[in-house]
Amino acid sequence: MNSDASTIEEYLAAIPADRSEALSKVRAVIIAHLPEGVVETMRWGMISYEIPLETYPNTYNKAPLSFAALANQKNHMSVYLYAQYSDETLRKEFEAMYRESGQKLDAGKACVRFKSLDGINLDAVGAAISRVTVPEFIQLYESTR
What order of strands is seen across the sheet that includes strand 65-72? Predict the structure, then answer.
């Protein structure tokens, strides 16, 4: 579900209160673990964490490089972890952390789906966000081009 909200506050205010609360808590974890140089914004109809063009202008679509994202979907919420999508070792580490916690992982290629705050491992999300620096992420991105 894409949103036409221009600010994160508008985005969170426009969704049901329980989802707004859950996304706000996941957002707080992401912000607490965000590597230096990644900025939070609204892009693609969701809360986006990206590397600005001033830092890395060589993207295929001339838009800032997407590092992570957080979104309200029709039947669930999602956190997108692009480093884990781009690197098999990082993905396996993330999945192992989930398994160790005993929580069920509902994931696609680049996203973790959850229906409530109880359905997401915040420690694993925080670890995934802090695991890769901006230079490492740029190197991952370039290796996939």
Answer: 39-43, 46-51, 65-72, 77-81, 111-114
Q: How far apart are CA 81 and CA 104, in angstroms?
A: 17
94 found inside a domain: yes
Q: What is residue 1's predicted lDDT score, i.e. its pLDDT?
A: 60
Is 3 part of any domain?
A: no
User: CATH number, domain at 46?
Assistant: 3.90.1150.200
Percentage helix, strand, coil for the chain under 3-state DSSP, each rounded to 5: 45, 20, 35
Query: 């969170």: which residue's tokens?
Result: 12
Helix spans in the chain (H): 8-13, 17-33, 82-86, 88-101, 122-130, 134-143
User: Global pTM?
Assistant: 0.92
